[in-house]
Amino acid sequence: MIGRLCAALTITCLAAPALAENCTASHYGYSGGKTASGERMNPNAMTAAHRSRPFGSHVTVTSHSTGRSVTVRINDRGPFIKGRCIDLSSGAARVLGISGIAMVSLR
């Protein structure tokens, strides 16, 4: 009985997405300036700004409208507009087919 319960809990935990978040994304692409992590902003890189995720962590972003996904590296802080949770580089937004803002899932 306990073995079955442990197996069920293991399967449930493995199937649950880690730190999943549904939110509004935007994009930015100012080249040359420094990001909060200290590196130069490259609008074509697969990078993003997030308020709390650690620099260097990777996040898979999926657009609700296009179904496309991209994995980005967090290298900046933001967005600083209420209701938005992530600012994507122009390159990452282009891969997702986003212009302006869009609903996304973060994982």
Helix content: 10-25%
User: What is the mean pLDDT?
Assistant: 87
State the secondary-structure class: alpha/beta
β-strand amount: 25-35%
Largest sheet, order of strands side by side? 1-5-2-4-3-6
Describe the global form.
globular
Overall strand count:
6
Rg calc? 16 Å
**Order of secondary-structure elements:** HEEEEEHE
Poorly predicted runs: 5-17
Q: How many strands, what sense, and barrel or not for the largest sheet?
A: 6 strands, mixed, barrel
Number of helices: 2
How far is the N terminus from the C terminus? 33 Å
Task: State the main characteristics.
globular; 107 residues; alpha/beta; 35% strand; six-stranded mixed barrel
Describe the structure.
The chain is of the alpha/beta class and 107 residues long. Helices cover 20% and strands 35% of the residues. The protein has two helices and six strands, in the order αβββββαβ. Strands 1-5-2-4-3-6 form a six-stranded mixed β-barrel. It is globular and about 30 Å long. The N and C termini lie far apart (33 Å). Residues 5-17 have low confidence and may be disordered.
Write the layout of secondary structure elements.
Blueprint: H1 2-15, E1 21-28, E2 47-50, E3 58-63, E4 69-76, E5 84-89, H2 90-96, E6 102-106
Parallel strand pairs: 1-5, 2-4
Antiparallel strand pairs: 1-6, 2-5, 3-4, 3-6
